């Protein structure tokens, strides 16, 4: 098999992933079809609270005039498809540790922020309503105080979100869990779903659609930087560890006949494969965190000179 | 156009403040301006020392097969030159300017912690003394400024020079971290009303980012130095392959510090240039946001590219490739800044004062240095050029042509503010041209020497083609640089007495330090103007509303200033301190994991030597002490002072029990013949748990002081965040123990 063959013929037909992407697109574009009775008291309080988060998003956009950014959302779904359906996903299933790492990073660091960006309302009124939230003490999230809301939309404490995001990476590299996920199809699904969920939890304080739920800029920078450090440490450990993190990848079952290409054609020995996996978690992951930090900073500087209050000296 | 601030005059010193006179005033000062000047003057002295060391090096290398100094002396000379210039000249100079001008630029009265500031300064002469005392104690250090193991280990460096080097750097490092904490707390909590972080002068922003780099990078060096000292004094083998250690580990640790360090040396210089170029181009800085954001990008990336100093160390192609890519990437934010500075000058009405001359030269020299650096990012080029004079040329271009030129520009720019007198422009121009000619002559030819294969750190060389003439030219350039420096010092001395009087704002600049007298009064400002943009004085002079031109705020106190979120300066400082300590412990933990996880060392190991149960019991005590401390804090918030004191006493008792338990454990191990040097398990175990125990002891001392203050009724009189602040440190120490216990004891079990 050649590299070209690999990239053209080794796509995974994954019905669950395809269905998920399709459903997401449909839900995204159904703007005004939220049944109003969801907001009324017919539903028990705890159920309302549990469903508050997704409904909050959709309801926020159900207001007239609030449009969202389609491009990031679609991009996020494309990355999701790439991660799960493309040869990256195929190779991640027991062939290449580095491909598995690439898939992880896409699921935790690329898909959730893109999807969340896609849910951010463009309407300044909808975003301002997000800012009408009152800030509570650090770690307790923000509570909705706007009139007419039938439910509150809290977010998880910051530390928990951070822990979930960082924990997602550390947890799945414990050798037993890593091997289990690569050997059992069910565990693999669990892994994929958990990575998406934990990634979404992690990115929520940075990119929550309701601006009021986001961390203040400086806190956001500390949040992202510390996560970057934690990720880097794991990357370093994996790169330089003489022990195999995921022994399954040392002896893959070659259903596709692709191993000669990987071992001889691409020169990927087991050690080099693990090294690359660790390095992927290290440098490219930090670039993603770095870009996020820069985006937060850009917001700081935009807010520093609001257009109406700009003094004549600001020509830059 | 000058800005006229009404009611601006010299404030008399209030008699109860700073009443010492003469030398005593300088020794006991806690005023950031005086401390800044102390830093600058001391650094200037060591600039002379380091410069003489460099001249000696260059004179020895002027001719092939020269014998001006012996090989051993030569090694000491270049080691001392490098260490002096980096730690005793550049870092203190940047800190000195920061100390003087950051509070002024943000409209504050002083730094957040003036006494800590003074302590940080005095650690500088002490560290310098330790470093130079080695000359009398058997010989200066001679293993290079980065002291690679195993050369820096006892078998190859038998004199005490390396030990003094390590001790000096430890002392200096503590001072640097303390200063960085101070800057972070100051910049985040003491800004004048209206000055958001998006409006601070870029020098302030750069200082903030540099301070973050310092608190994360210096502790890494400190941990490595501690391990080196343990190796040298206690005969262990952390970095000695002969005893199972790893010399490569030293390189990793050192460069994890070393690469952020070079950005620590560069970023404040970028800040100075960002202040000077706009003023002398009569234009605001182009792309303020880009300059600020690219600084943050540099800071983040700087921790991920250290292995580009180790391309020749055999890490493997995969690692090399990633670090090469990262290193090329990190050149981009710096390039963004260069373009912004050029764009600022473009179309401006440029006035070439000496400061502007040096700033312009900075742009050119730094680009040259940066380009030669980027050529190193390609690993194969690095394999050819590493350890040759090409490297020497590169880092002198960025550090001297870059940072030092920026410092000289800043001196000409800010000397009038600090002394009230302008430096002589005639002497300044002489200084500038001599320096440009001398510097480029010295170091440009070294690029060729490196390409021709001349290695660095050789005390002499054979008469190979072109080597002699290029070296001679380089030495000639060095002599010219020496003359230029003399001109500079003469300028400083003369202008201090007889320079033209400067006035408040001789350059018609726009940032807050120019809104007060030259030199500023003790409390910096009689009144701080309202901040509505990035150029407060420009706004003041051009505001349409005549009423707004009147200054609104009286002398402000820290309480009235813009604060970040709900944190006070104490909390910010202790969190920054916790971050620095976390980095320190991280290195010790990594060392432990490195030597004990994959393959257990021969001899005693965690599973064979440690009593997990007993230590587990003491661990419970320590964790309980965190709980009792939390209860104490809660009681204090409820103003229940008795309960608070009781819980605090319980915390002290539990902490003491833990320490006694640890001492007991150590005694048990000693009685079984397990000491530091037994094997690598013992070394890493004692180092890691020992430093943790030290932190517990420090925490107990601090809490005892707080307890005493509480008994004396301090907390009844006013609300205090002291307990919460010290408590944060204690909780951190406990978190570290949880990690250490899991890695050392629990892992031993299973």
Q: What is the topological layout?
A:
The complex is a heterodimer of chains A (316) and B (750).
Chain A (H helix, E strand, L loop, with lengths): L2 H7 L5 H15 L15 H6 L1 H11 L7 H16 L1 H6 L4 H22 L5 H8 L2 E2 L6 E2 L14 H14 L3 H9 L1 H23 L9 H24 L18 H7 L4 H35 L12
Antiparallel strand pairs in A: 1-2
Helix pairs in contact in A: 2-5, 5-7, 7-11, 7-14, 9-11, 9-12, 10-11, 12-14
Chain B lengths: L21 H7 L3 H29 L10 H35 L8 H20 L27 H29 L12 H33 L12 H35 L6 H15 L14 H29 L8 H24 L1 H7 L3 H31 L5 H27 L15 H32 L37 H7 L3 H4 L19 H28 L9 H4 L2 H26 L3 H31 L8 H32 L2 H4 L4 H28 L1
What can you see in these coordinates?
The complex is a heterodimer of chains A (316) and B (750). Chain A is mainly alpha-helical and 316 residues long. Chain A contains 14 helices and two strands. In chain A, strands 1-2 form a two-stranded antiparallel ribbon. With 750 residues, chain B is mainly α. Helix content of chain B is 69%, strand content 0%. At the A-B interface, helix 12 and helix 14 of A face helix 8, helix 9 and helix 15 of B.
Which CATH architecture of the largest domain in chain B?
Up-down Bundle
Number of domains of chain B: 2
Contiguous helical run count of chain A:
14
Kindly state the number of beta strands of chain A: 2
The biggest beta sheet of chain A reads: 2 strands, antiparallel
Spell the H/E element sequence of chain A: HHHHHHHHEEHHHHHH
Q: What is the global morphology of chain A?
A: globular
Question: Residue share in helices of chain B?
Answer: 55-70%
CATH topology description of the largest domain in chain B: Cytochrome C Oxidase, Chain A
Mean pLDDT reading of chain B: 90
Could you give a short account of the major beta sheet of chain B? none
What is the H/E string of chain B? HHHHHHHHHHHHHHHHHHHHHHH
Low-confidence stretches of chain B: 1-16, 546-561
Structural class of chain A: mainly alpha
Name of the CATH class of the largest domain in chain B? Mainly Alpha
In whole angstroms, how far apart are the ends of chain A? 56 Å
């Amino acid at each position: 098999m050649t590299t070209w063959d690999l990239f053209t013929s080794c796509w995974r037909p994954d019905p669950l992933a395809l269905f998920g992407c399709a459903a997401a697109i449909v839900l995204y574009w159904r703007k005004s079809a939220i049944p109003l009775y969801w907001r009324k008291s017919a539903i028990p309080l705890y159920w309302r609270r549990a469903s508050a988060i997704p409904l909050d998003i959709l309801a926020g956009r159900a207001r007239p005039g609030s449009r969202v950014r389609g491009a990031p959302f679609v991009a996020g779904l494309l990355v999701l498809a790439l991660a799960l359906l493309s040869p990256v996903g195929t190779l991640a299933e027991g062939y290449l540790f580095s491909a598995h790492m690439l898939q992880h990073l896409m699921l935790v660091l690329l898909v959730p922020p893109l999807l969340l960006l896609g849910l951010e309302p463009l309407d300044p009124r909808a975003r301002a309503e997000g800012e009408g939230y009152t800030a509570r003490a650090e770690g307790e999230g923000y509570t909705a105080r706007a009139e007419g809301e039938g439910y509150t939309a809290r977010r998880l404490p910051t530390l928990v979100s951070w822990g979930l995001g960082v924990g997602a990476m550390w947890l799945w590299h414990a050798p037993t869990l890593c091997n289990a996920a690569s050997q059992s199809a069910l565990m693999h699904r669990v892994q994929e779903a958990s990575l998406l969920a934990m990634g979404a939890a992690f990115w929520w304080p940075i990119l929550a659609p309701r601006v009021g739920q986001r961390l203040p800029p400086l806190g956001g920078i500390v949040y992202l930087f510390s996560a970057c450090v934690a990720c880097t440490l794991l990357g370093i450990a994996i790169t330089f560890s003489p022990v195999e993190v995921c022994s399954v990848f040392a002896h893959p079952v070659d259903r596709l006949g692709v191993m000669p290409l990987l071992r001889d054609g691409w020169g990927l020995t087991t050690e080099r494969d693990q090294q690359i996996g660790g390095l992927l978690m290290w440098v490219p992951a930090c670039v993603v965190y770095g870009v996020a930090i820069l985006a937060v900073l850009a917001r700081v500087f935009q807010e520093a000179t609001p257009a109406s209050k700009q003094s004549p000296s600001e020509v830059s | 156009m000058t800005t006229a601030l009404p009611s601006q005059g010299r404030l008399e010193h209030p008699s109860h403040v700073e009443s010492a006179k003469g030398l005593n005033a300088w020794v006991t000062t806690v005023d950031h301006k005086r401390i800044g000047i102390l830093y600058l003057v001391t650094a200037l002295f060591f600039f002379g020392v380091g410069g003489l060391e460099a001249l000696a090096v260059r004179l020895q290398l002027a001719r092939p097969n020269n014998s001006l100094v012996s090989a051993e002396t030569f090694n000491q000379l270049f080691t001392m030159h490098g260490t002096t210039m980096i730690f005793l000249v550049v870092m203190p100079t940047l800190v000195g300017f920061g100390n003087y001008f950051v509070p002024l630029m943000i409209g504050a009265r002083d730094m957040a912690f003036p006494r800590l500031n003074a302590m940080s300064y005095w650690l500088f002469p002490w560290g310098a003394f330790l470093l130079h005392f080695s000359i009398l104690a058997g010989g200066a250090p001679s293993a290079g400024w980065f002291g690679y193991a195993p050369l820096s280990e006892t078998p190859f460096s038998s004199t005490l020079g390396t030990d003094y080097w390590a001790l000096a750097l430890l002392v200096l490092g503590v001072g640097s971290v303390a200063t960085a904490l101070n800057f972070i707390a100051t910049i985040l909590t003491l800004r004048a009303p209206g000055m958001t972080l998006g409006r601070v002068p870029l020098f302030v922003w750069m200082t903030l980012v540099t301070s973050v780099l310092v608190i994360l990078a210096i502790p890494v060096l400190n941990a490595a130095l501690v391990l080196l000292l343990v190796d040298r004094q206690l005969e262990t083998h952390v970095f000695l392959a002969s005893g199972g250690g790893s010399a490569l580990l030293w390189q990793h640790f050192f460069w994890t510090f070393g690469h952020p360090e070079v950005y620590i040396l560069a970023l404040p210089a970028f800040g100075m240039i960002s202040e000077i170029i706009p003023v002398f181009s009569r234009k605001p800085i182009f792309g303020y946001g880009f300059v600020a954001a690219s600084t943050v990008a540099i800071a983040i990336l700087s921790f991920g590219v250290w292995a580009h100093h180790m391309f020749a160390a055999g890490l493997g192609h995969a690692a090399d490739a990633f670090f090469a890519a990262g290193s090329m990437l990190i050149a981009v934010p710096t390039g963004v800044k260069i373009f912004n500075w050029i764009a600022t000058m473009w179309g401006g009405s440029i006035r070439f004062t000496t400061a502007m001359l040096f700033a312009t030269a900075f742009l050119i020299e730094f680009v040259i240095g940066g380009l030669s650096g980027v050529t190193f990012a390609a690993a194969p080029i690095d394999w050819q050029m590493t350890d040759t004079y090409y490297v020497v040329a590169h880092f002198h271009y960025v550090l001297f042509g870059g940072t030092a030129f920026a410092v000289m520009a800043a001196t000409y720019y800010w000397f009038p503010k600090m002394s009230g007198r302008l430096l002589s422009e005639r002497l300044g121009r002489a200084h500038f041209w001599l320096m440009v000619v001398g510097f480029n002559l010295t170091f440009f030819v070294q690029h060729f020497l490196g390409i021709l294969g001349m290695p660095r750190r050789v005390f002499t060389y054979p008469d190979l083609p072109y080597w002699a003439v290029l070296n001679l030219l380089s030495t000639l350039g060095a002599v010219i640089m020496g003359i230029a420096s003399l001109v500079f010092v003469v300028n400083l001395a003369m202008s201090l007495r007889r320079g033209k009087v400067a006035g408040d704002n001789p350059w018609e600049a726009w940032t807050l330090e120019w809104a007060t007298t030259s030199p500023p009064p003790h409390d910096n400002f009689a009144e701080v103007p309202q901040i509505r943009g990035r150029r407060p004085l420009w706004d003041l002079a051009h505001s349409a509303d005549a009423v707004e031109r009147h200054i609104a705020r009286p002398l402000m106190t820290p309480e009235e200033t813009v604060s970040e979120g709900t944190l006070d300066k104490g909390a910010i400082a202790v969190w920054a301190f916790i971050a620095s300590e976390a980095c320190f412990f991280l290195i010790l933990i990594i060392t432990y994991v490195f030597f004990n996880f994959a393959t257990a060392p021969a001899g005693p190991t965690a599973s064979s030597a440690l009593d997990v149960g007993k230590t587990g019991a003491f661990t419970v005590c320590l964790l309980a002490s965190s709980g009792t401390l939390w209860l104490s804090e809660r009681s204090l918030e409820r103003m229940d002072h008795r309960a608070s004191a009781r819980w605090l006493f319980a915390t002290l008792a539990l902490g003491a029990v833990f320490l006694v338990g640890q001492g007991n454990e150590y005694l048990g191990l000693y009685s079984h013949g397990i000491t530091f040097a037994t094997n690598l398990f013992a070394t890493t175990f004692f180092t890691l748990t020992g430093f943790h125990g030290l932190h517990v002891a420090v925490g107990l001392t601090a809490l005892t002081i707080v307890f005493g203050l509480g008994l004396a009724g301090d907390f009844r009189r006013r609300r205090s965040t002291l307990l919460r602040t010290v408590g944060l440190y204690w909780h951190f120490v406990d978190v570290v123990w949880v990690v250490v216990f899991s890695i050392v004891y629990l892992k031993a079990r299973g």
